[in-house]
TrEMBL record:
It is a multi-pass membrane protein. Solcar repeats lie at residues 151-243. Gene3D superfamilies: Mitochondrial carrier domain. Belongs to the mitochondrial carrier (TC 2.A.29) family. Residues 1-13 have a biased composition (Basic and acidic residues). Pfam families: Mito_carr. This is Putative mitochondrial carrier. It is found in: Mitochondrion outer membrane. InterPro entries: MCP_dom_sf, MCP_transmembrane.
């Protein structure tokens, strides 16, 4: 095991460094082009899908401006059905126009850039470099393959936990601004009109703590997905699944399954970001005043609203809704 670990680290150093000690990417034009293309692709995808993210955010905070209609679920059950995410996005466009569907995008892009860049930088500074195991022509024995798989799992898990936790903490202030810019749609406010104005508003009304609203449930959701998903992938790969391609597919499936189970914490994070602000969307009667994120989770779960937005197409009205719940909001005032 020690020999395999040393081989993994040595291979990683050889891949990451050139003869003069600098990172390989600095002198490799193809590597640099690949990194630039990946970054541009992420920006393009985030921008193109942002109207759907906008609609999903409003769904998560419980704003439903379009009344439900009788319909059937995916399994044929008769229920009152809410509009899908595309119909919701079309409604936003009908109210605010095309460019109104991208409110908060600038803050989201800044947060994503800082998260992706500094997450990797901090992990590298702490010595958690991304493992790049050199593959030889000779096949490893069954025991050596399992040991090497364990080494890769531990190294990847440590790095991913550092990268994700650092990225979330650094990007949280911009994530808060982005969510609140979108939540203004509910009350038609113009409080968060830009990055500078939003920073001044949060600093003036809530202080430093306001920039990190909803941080804990977001960390629980993201880090829980990394930890549980990676561990599940490793255990199944070490006992059942063989082959690199099958293991990659298993990794995708595991993380998707775990993220679905932890999705309620994503809803809680979004609600806590808006709750208590000066926006109508975060105060009565649109939203209860939650004591903390645990109180928010408990109340949403009690009314079966802790998975709002998890289904983007077949959206049925929750069965268990208390009389005090106000899921259906009035249409926004036109100004």
């Amino acid at each position: 095991l020690h020999a395999l670990r040393e081989e993994a680290r040595r291979s990683n150093e050889e891949e990451m460094q050139s003869g003069n000690g600098r990172e390989r990417g600095e002198d490799d034009p193809e590597w640099q082009i690949t990194q630039d293309m990946q970054f541009l692709l992420r920006v393009a995808c985030t921008t193109a899908l942002y109207p759907l993210e906008y609609a999903k955010t409003l769904i998560q905070i419980g704003y439903e401006p379009i009344a439900p209609r009788p319909g059937r679920t995916l399994f044929g059950e008769r229920r009152l059905m809410l509009p899908n995410v595309f119909q919701y996005a079309a409604y936003i466009k009908s109210v605010d126009g095309f460019f109104g569907c991208f409110r908060g995008l600038s803050a989201r892009l800044v947060g994503n850039f800082l998260s992706s860049y500094y997450g990797g930088v901090v992990a590298d500074r702490l010595g958690y470099s991304e493992p790049r195991i050199r593959k030889g022509n000779a096949r490893l024995s069954h025991d050596d393959d399992r040991q090497l798989l364990k080494v890769q799992f531990v190294m990847n898990l440590k790095r991913n936990l550092v990268v994700h936790s650092t990225g979330i903490v650094i990007s949280q202030p911009f994530y808060v601004i982005s969510i609140r810019m979108m939540a203004q749609f509910v009350g038609r406010e113009r409080i968060y009109t830009g990055l500078v104005a939003s920073i001044k508003e949060i600093w003036k009304t809530e202080g430093v703590a306001g920039f990190f609203s909803g941080l804990i449930p977001r960390l629980v959701c993201d880090l829980g997905c990394v930890l549980i998903g990676s561990t599940l992938t490793y255990l199944l790969s070490a006992t059942i699944v063989e082959g690199e391609s099958s293991r990659n597919n298993l990794n995708t499936l595991s993380h998707f399954t775990v993220s679905s189970l932890l999705y309620p914490y994503h809803v809680v994070s979004t609600c806590m970001i808006v709750n208590g602000s000066r926006l109508k969307a975060g105060n009565l009667p649109m939203m209860e005043n939650y004591v903390n994120w645990k109180d928010c989770y408990a109340k949403l779960r009690a009314t079966n609203e802790h998975k709002r937005g998890s289904s983007l197409f077949f959206r049925a009205v929750p069965k268990a809704i208390t009389k005090a719940s106000n899921i259906f909001a009035p249409y926004p005032e036109m100004k």
